[in-house]
Amino acid sequence: MNSLASHLPILPVLLPLLAGIVLLALRNAPSGLQRGLALAATLALIPLAGALLAAAGSDGPLVYRLGDWEAPFGIVLVADRLAAWMLMVTALVAAFALLHAFRGTDTAGRHFHVLYQLQLFGLNGAFLTGDLFNLFVFFEILLLASYGLLLHGGGRLRVKAGLHFVVINLVGSTLFLFAVSTLYGVTGTLNMADLAVKLAQTPPENLALVETAGLLLFGVFALKAALLPLHLWLPAAYGQTSAPVAALFAIMTKVGAYSILRIYSLMFGADGGPVANLLAGWLMPLALATLAIGMLGAVAAPTLRQQIAYLVVSSVGTLLAAFALASTEGIAAGLYYLPHTTLGTAAAFLLADPIVRARGAHVDRLESGPPMPGAPVLGALFFIAAIALAGLPPLSGFLGKFMLLRAALESPWLDWVWGVVLTAGLVGVIALARSGSLLFYRTLSSDENLPVPRATDWLPAAALLGTLLGMTVWAGPLARYADATAVQLLTPQTYIDAVLGPRP
Amino acid sequence: MEALVALVIGTLTACGVYLTLRGQTFPVVLGLTFLSYAVNLFIFVMGRLAVGMPPVISSVASGYTDPLPQALVLTAIVISFGMTAFVIVLALKARAELGNDHVDGLNREEDAPR
Fold it and tell me: Cβ of B72 and A170 within 8 Å?
């Protein structure tokens, strides 16, 4: 295999990196050229992710050895079904958020497009890498780019939220390094497949060390995923930043969820020998508590964007509750719910932007304001987004939650999952109905002259909501793919054999 | 030597944690620096402590020290150096924009959601 196809797994990593470098060189070029390049590079990720989805679906995990060094000595990229799935979600969110940025965010400061591409470089790399230290490096890349994007455009509140975000993530990175190096000290390897083999043979005297490192790693991923009680940084950071960046950040918490799923199914999964099922008993209560707190936060939020940020927190709770079931059905439900919630919250953040603009001095505070120009369109879109976020039929959120509830039937957590998920759904409906009626119905008369939103203001959000419709229509094939992904994750031997080669 | 190194890492971490929890941005930045020093040393000694051993293959060597943690720590140093530079600039910007160096900034009336 010497064709381009054998290099497919590295292309989603290389493309944004090269685009970022070219855009850095072109930073003084006219903004039209920069936009064209950035859009071309971002849109190209969609067919690449599609090709990987197809390839990973038919041939099993694709392994790319960098420099052709054999695993476990070299670094490998592994494109299995899960990685390809995450790449596709990232590519979709990134494309629509970038389109929204063209209406002015990208010219509010320099280097927006460079940082955006580097953020995609970090995200794609984190999903594809098969090496634990390399995962740390890609985390740092995506975080450093996200610091820049978060602060893009400036403003006092943004700087304040950004400072908290940066400091807490730097502490998280330090803990990540402690955990990774402890694992290296015990096992002498960093390749995830090799770690899975070595950890399954942990001698009893090292068990405490390995468990400490494994739980420390969980703490780091929980911080990135905004799991309770490490969720407090999220509402301020997401609520203060610009709309396209907040939409792109909808995928950032999912990086944490992805890492939890990957590490704890591969290395500490059911086949893990002495370290098997390390998270059992931890993940489910934390996930359900996160779901509950997120929904309560959404009810109490004083502004629309903070409300959406709290809905991101609660969606992480739902997602991890599904993963915590650790059954094929549970993980499949989570994998179907993941693109839904990512695309849905991204659309809501993009939609909040024209709403803020159309409310003049009231911005996005949840209070009665002047009647909004363009309210029929914005209101209709808000209604669809609210249905999606609350998980009501007929959109994909309902299907995802239904799959989760059905998967929980056989679980010992049945009462808790049903109780919390259904109550949280009801609370979510109340929260969103309240903001909808405050924003669109209970208006005050005013002679303020507010700008009428143009079609370009809400089209990207509408398109994202359209993808949710697509997810509902093609729910069958998507659920089958998610099912096969879950099966692949629960048989880590496939992954290990693909990376290390078949062994006795 | 193991005890000494462990003591040094422990002290650095303790200082780092304490300083990170302070209210002003300058001690927080210092604390993050201490934490990254501690973790760099920690990575380094995860290859086990060996004195006078070569990391690369040689015909006269009686034993070897693990070269991989040295490569890892180099990466970690570069990253933490870049991050420290960034957080210093951010702290200065926050000082300028928020009017004081408290990590929560000065809460002005117009910032509160009404």
Answer: no
